[in-house]
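Quick one before lunch.
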Amino acid sequence: MFDFTHKTIVITGAGRGIGAETAREFARAGGFVVINDLVPNDQINALLDEIGQEKCIAVYADVSKEEDVIRMCAEIRTLRNTIDIWVNNAGIVDSASLQDTTLEKWNRTFAINLVGVFLCTKHATPLMINGGAIVNIASIRGAFNCGRPPIADYSASKAGVISFTKTMAKELAPSIRVNCVSPGVAETEMTKGYAQDFIAKVKDEIYLGNLIQPSQIAKAIVFLASDDASGITGANLMVDGGQSLSK
Ligand SMILES: NC(=O)c1ccc[n+]([C@@H]2O[C@H](COP(=O)([O-])OP(=O)(O)OC[C@H]3O[C@@H](n4cnc5c(N)ncnc54)[C@H](O)[C@@H]3O)[C@@H](O)[C@H]2O)c1
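Model of the nicotinamide-adenine-dinucleotide complex:
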């Protein structure tokens, strides 16, 4: 059992899906969780109630905007003084094929999925004065040879997250470990609109047979953030049921 008592954990895009499940998992392990998302909503209020106001707070900010990230870090500093763990989870898929996509779509995907990871890492690390761990959420689509049409922008942004993780693992060592989790297709609101024939094809590719559950990803994130992973930095842990072995 992991123990995050007295630790402050910040999770971006934690209002639902993988981030929300990760917030639950850290809180169960005794941590104090800062739930970041864009704007308040009923789902986030329910999550705050479920975890308990004494074990979490919400801080609203758009990770793609530097002024928002600076304000968020200042708010966290006022509330908690230091940060121990930062999970860069916020991300979007808004893709189209090469001829149907636009520069605006590309820039937005990169601004949230990759620039957001950079901005949060830049402004959070000065608050990680006792050292700590960063876990970035990439995707199997960012792995070598795994980019998939029509999500070229998403795939490239996640490849950037994997590369950034490895560079930061060197730059921030030895006080801060930086690792990456790359999920396969997981059952969240991000993927619920995917066509049934696509989901059937994905299931065929997954050696363990089922779509990944957010809780399975959350457990990998918590492990990489824990002292049990004290010898691990610069890693990219695939949580995909073996899907990336298919391509
Ligand atoms: N679901 C999957 O199949 C899958 C697979 C591989 C990787 N991932 C990655 O895992 C992460 C979480 O995915 P999910 O399925 O839980 O997604 P989701 O869409 O269910 O949740 C993402 C959350 O991020 C928030 N968000 C979006 N833009 C933001 C911004 N600019 N600033 C702050 N918050 C923002 C959203 O409001 C939402 O609450 C993403 O980085 C995603 O790319 C997901």
